[in-house]
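To make this tangible, this section ends with a sequence with its structure tokens:
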Amino acid sequence: MDFEGLSQKPAGYPFSFPPQGKQLDGHSQKKTSSKKIGPRNALPPYLSGQNKKHPPPRKLGYHKKDGLAQGVLQHSIFPSSSTGISFPSNGRISFPKAENNSNKQNANPHHSLPDPIAERAIKKNHPPPKNLPSTSPTSAAPTKKTSTFSARRKWVGFLLRAFLYIGTITAGLGTYYSFRETRVNGWIAVKGISMPKEIYIVHDFSADIKALKDNYFNEIGPCLEEVQNKKENLKKARTDLTALNERIRLLKQQEHVAETEIQIVAKEYQEKVDQIWKTEGALLDQEFDKKLEELRERFKQKALQLGIDFNISSAEANSPEAWVNAYNLALYNPPPEIDPVKERQWAEEELKNWHNFEKENEKKREELKIKTKEIQAEVGPKVQALREQILRIQSRIQDSQLEITPLEQEYANNERELAQAEETERKIKERFLNDLEKIPQNSVREKIPLSPEGYFEWRRLDQNPKFSPGQYFLWVVIKKEGKEWWSLFPFPINAYALTEIVVLPESFVPIDLFLN
């Protein structure tokens, strides 16, 4: 049995270990057990005269081993003189001083056997532990030094305690480090769109975007300049075309006035037949006032249409020449879409018409004097003059219509060229947008899954050597209004800490803004 695994005082163990440095033998062992093992008489019960209850054993001796049992029995029943045991009459046995038989035993241990009675007396005085196996009387129990055993037992206890402390500390440290984690949590806080399946950790590709933007400006710059020129040409052609149409409209209006005047003259002819002076004189005055008012109204409407400052004082209320001068002064700083030369020509033409009217009116007045004589001759020249005026107006209308055809062609050409320039601009921009979309794909370092609600989680970064604590870039792509919107911003990864990210709608911009 191995005693080294036992504790200092295990439960149910009937004895304690001797102190270090003392031998474990029958002569020096002290009584340490509190349990009473047996009587401490000097003689066994069957040899004591006071105790009659224990008859002597039938046989005294050792186990049958090596053929010694018979000799021991004989030696115990018929003791020799060497035992020195005498039986007095009082029934007690007296033992003489024991002799040292160690030399005999060492010489021949098989033939020199110890006295069984004395051996039993020693066993009675020093009973062995119950749990220890009985030793053979033929061989003496070897003595052990307990110092080595006790030291080994103490070292075992010390090692066990050390292992317990080390295990406790290791478990605590392991628990502490197992709960430490570097992770990133986030939410894409954009509503009303379908979330992408993943977001990306990328390298900083702002330098690539800047280089692409420089190339884009170098290539699209001439195209933008051409588009601007085409727009200006188109605007100029539109202005010229508008002015020409307005001139044609005014000429047609004069033609209509001349035709109306002819009708008036015809009506006057009918009235002059009845009342030459009573009606025709009044009609000439009314006609003069009417023409003067119409001329003034035409100047006001024309100035209002052109957006120029046209003022007539009270002293100049009935002077068409003053109106023309005021109209020409207002054309010194006209808007860019107005042609002052053409407008001055129009004013001179109106003044000329007015002078013609004055002449005609004066002529009519002169004719009224002789109207009574030649009424028929008075109507013919006036009608003829009006018809000639109408022919002149129609000729100018035809010339203007001939001018309008090339202007319309020029306007159509400018529209077509502008559309081509804008199409070239669109293709260049589309090509560079495709190149822009490829830049982040070459810079992706990690893909993070994204839930349909916009939440993402990136855990156990402390176990990922690719992402040590530091600054990184998050790139998120969504689809909105038929095009891509990007959100690119930096964020930190802190060691053994939680980094929370909320991507707001304001951080998303359309991809084409990166090229503007």
